[in-house]
Amino acid sequence: MQTSCAGRAQELCRPSPCGRNTNCQVQGERAVCTCLPNYVGDPLTGCRPECERDSHCPANFACQNNRSIMACDYIGLFSSMRAV
C-alpha cells in the first residue's frame, strides 16, 4: 500500500503559520512565508502596505496604490522634483 506525501506537505500551510497579507508555500518539508506584492514587514507576524499616504514615503516619492513611487514633474534642465 502506497501513500502520497504531497497532501501531507500541503498541510504545513493549513492552517497557515504566516501572518496577515502573506503567502505560504511548501518548500521541501517546511512552510515558507513571504509578504504579498507591495507589502513589507515580517511575514511570520504580518505584512503591511508599503505606504498608506505620501508622508510614509521618502522625499520626492508619493504613495499610489499602497506603493511608494518616485513622482516627478519634469519642468526642464536643472529643475527640481516634486510629488504630484
Automatic annotation (TrEMBL):
It comes from the Eukaryota. This is EGF-like domain-containing protein. It comes from Hyalella azteca (Amphipod).
